[in-house]
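The instructor's notes for this session suggest beginning with a concrete chain rather than abstract definitions. Hand out the sequence below and ask the class to guess, before any prediction is shown, which regions might be ordered.
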Amino acid sequence: MHITVDIEVDQTQKQTPEEVSKEVSQAFYMKKYMDGKVSLGKFAELMGMSYEEARDWLNAQGVQAPSKLPPELKAYVRESGQEILKELGIS
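After discussion, reveal the predicted structure:
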């Protein structure tokens, strides 16, 4: 496996090697989560956080849960949901 990380020099001068290592790990695990390679529970475990802490941390970073549905199925679910709401007189 090959990983490339871009780090701003000015920022690393203010950080310890441990802090830089932690940020690299966070970025790596966040990417795995965003790509759907690890669940939120696994992400939390890898980060040393509770499930809720991990969810809140990801939200603070602007990361949303990855969608595993293909685009065609997403459209079908959305359309079906709208039809059901119409039939129920909710929409």
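Then share the key points. Residues 16-87 form one domain. The chain has one domain: 16-87.
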